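Below is a filled-in request sheet from our internal design queue. Each sheet records the structural input a requester submitted and the sequence that came back. We keep these sheets so that new team members can see what a complete request looks like end to end.

REQUESTER: design group, bay 2
PRIORITY: normal
MODE: inverse folding
CHAIN LENGTH: 212
BACKBONE (tokenized):
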């Protein structure tokens, strides 16, 4: 009996000592453009887009994870466009949300969007961006450098053993949202998603627009 108990305790200790498996996170996203004739099109990463163009960013991430959209404008200004654990449409597995239709201003240059999903809330990152928004002058520039470093370091600091995979273009866009989940279509929708990104505990994608 003692041997049986000792063996059980040894197995229990070994199980507790094993590393916890990293949570694989995958999110989908898509930039959809709208021409003057109302025709929709997929905006590709690095695409040249003219001032005044209408764009819409859609994203769908695992329900219960935290999702962020950090924006760096063509004038080198940061903004946290989205930070939430709940979206407009959610079920047990995924949450769909969107920034809605946006129009590019007259400031040409590179527009950079960094999309992040994390199993844990990135509170320090949120505080950093909040402090940046309140700062001015040299202080604001120092916070900007810290934000840039944080965006570079987050995957390495938080990712599991397999790290963060590069974002991939889907063969065909899919439609996000509870109503359209898992449905593919030859026709684009305002809810369309065209890319996906994956990682252990955290996933990240960087999307740029050549604003002309």
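RETURNED SEQUENCE:
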């Amino acid at each position: 009996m003692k041997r049986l108990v000792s063996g059980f305790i040894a197995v229990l200790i070994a199980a507790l000592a094993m590393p916890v498996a990293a949570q694989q996170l995958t999110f989908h996203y898509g930039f959809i453009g709208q021409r003057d004739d109302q025709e929709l099109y997929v905006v590709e990463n690095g695409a040249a887009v003219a001032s005044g163009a209408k764009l819409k960013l859609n994203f769908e991430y695992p329900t219960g994870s935290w999702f962020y959209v950090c924006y760096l404008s063509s004038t080198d200004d940061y903004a946290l466009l989205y930070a939430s654990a709940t979206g407009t449409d959610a079920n047990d597995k995924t949450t769909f949300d969107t920034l809605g239709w946006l129009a590019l201003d007259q400031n040409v240059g590179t527009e950079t969007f960094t999309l992040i999903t994390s199993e844990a809330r990135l509170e320090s990152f949120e505080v950093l961006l909040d402090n940046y928004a309140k700062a001015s002058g040299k202080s604001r520039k120092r916070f900007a450098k810290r934000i840039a470093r944080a965006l570079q370091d987050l995957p390495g600091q938080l990712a599991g053993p397999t790290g963060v995979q590069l974002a991939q273009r889907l063969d065909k866009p899919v439609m996000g949202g509870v109503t359209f989940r898992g449905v593919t279509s030859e026709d684009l929708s305002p809810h369309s998603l065209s890319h996906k990104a994956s990682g252990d505990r955290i996933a990240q994608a960087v999307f740029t627009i050549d604003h002309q």
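SHEET NOTES:
- Helices lie at 2-17, 123-134, 137-158.
- The two ends are 78 Å apart (CA to CA).
FILED BY: M.R.
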